[in-house]
Design goal:
By secondary structure, the protein is of the alpha/beta class. It has 2 domains: about 180 residues, Rossmann fold, CATH 3.40.50.450; about 110 residues, Phosphofructokinase domain (Rossmann fold). The chain contains 11 helices and 11 strands. The structure holds adenosine-5'-triphosphate.
Length: about 325
């Protein structure tokens, strides 16, 4: 049994990180284990910016987006010397295990720390991208998808009024989950994702035909990794004569009060992570598979690339 653990959030923030950290802290305290909060991700670990937490430190945060611990991207962590310093800062305080809530980069950093020092590490997938291998869910993806749906609903109104084509660029450099899920839920005509090739000329020809037949509007959702929304919009306007507008959603997708799904799932993952690390388990990531909490090997999670669910891709084609 470990007697003292720490928790941090790292990488891009995501709605539900607070609910998750809260669950880690309260589970540890419930089990009689000391718990430290590390501010600003790996930066805080290197700068010794950490504090012993009490129950009240995680009060009034479950409903908030962002992360009360702060988060950062930290270059120093990418070097072995940096990670050794972080390890020393943990050991100096008697901290025996670390829970890292973050995206694939943060989990990669955690995986290296565990390999190099042997300190117990449990990772939790905190990113809106839903791109962590082995889990069909990451903390914050549901809130982000709902934010996109809200934008789609509004854009659809104005597109329909003016008979326009709207190109909506959403987040997702290497993973099209957000675009695909929100596109399906929002009834988009075309969904462009980094995992699939597309033929813009064929799409333009299709669009022109549909407009001739009386279609009032067209909605294209494009993940940023599949191309620039601005350039795709320009190409469509030039090749179809359809009045086209582009909207780039940007960081609005990261913020906002987490949905019920993100709060509950983040809490479940946080509880499991705390229980696992307290009992001495290491090198695992907790995620979800078909609605159930599952544990995934940490090194497998960071060394494999998640692929797009073929059923989603098929559904998008059928419903178009
Ligand atoms: P998101 O998916 O939301 O962008 P992320 O966790 O993937 O979140 P990154 O910027 O990739 O965000 O990683 C966060 C931090 O994790 C980095 O700033 C760095 O400190 C650490 N990290 C990332 N990749 C590595 C690596 N290969 N080796 C060591 N540390 C890493």
């Amino acid at each position: 049994m470990l007697k003292s653990i720490a928790v941090m959030t790292s990488g891009g923030d995501s709605p539900g990180m607070n609910a998750c950290a809260r669950a880690v802290v309260r589970t540890a305290l419930y089990e009689g284990v000391e718990v430290w909060g590390i501010n600003n991700g790996y930066h805080g670990l290197l700068d010794e910016d950490m504090f012993k937490m009490e129950r009240k430190d995680v009060g009034d945060i479950i409903q908030r987006g962002g992360t009360f611990l702060g988060t950062a991207r930290c270059k120093r962590w990418e070097k072995p010397e940096g990670r050794m310093q972080g390890y020393k800062n943990l050991v100096d305080r008697g901290i025996q295990g670390l829970v890292v809530i973050g995206g694939d980069g943060s989990l990669r950093g955690a995986s290296l720390l565990s390999k190099e020092t042997g300190i117990p590490i449990v990772g939790l997938p905190g990113t809106i991208d839903n791109d962590v291998w082995g889990s069909d869910y990451t903390i914050g993806c549901d809130t982000a998808a709902n934010t996109i749906i809200d934008a789609i609903n509004k854009l659809r109104d104005t597109a329909s009024a003016h008979r326009r084509c709207i190109v909506l660029e959403v987040m997702g450099h290497r993973c099209g989950w957000l675009a695909m899920t929100a596109g399906i839920a929002g009834g988009a005509e075309y969904i462009l994702v980094p995992e699939e090739e597309y033929d813009l000329d064929a799409i333009c020809a299709d669009m022109a035909k549909a407009y001739k037949a009386g279609k009032r509007y067209i909605l294209v959702v494009v993940a940023e990794g599949a191309g620039s929304g601005q350039e795709i919009g320009k190409y469509i306007a030039e090749h179809t004569n359809i009045d086209t507008r582009v909207s780039v959603l940007g960081h609005i997708q990261r913020g906002g009060s987490p949905t019920v799904i993100d709060r509950v799932k983040a809490s479940q993952l946080g509880e499991q992570a705390a229980l696992a690390i307290i009992s001495g388990l290491s090198d695992i990531v907790f995620g979800f598979n078909k609605g159930h909490v599952v544990s995934i090997n940490l090194h497998d999670a960071v060394n494999n690339k998640k692929t797009l669910d073929p059923e989603y891709a098929h559904l998008a084609r059928v419903l178009f």
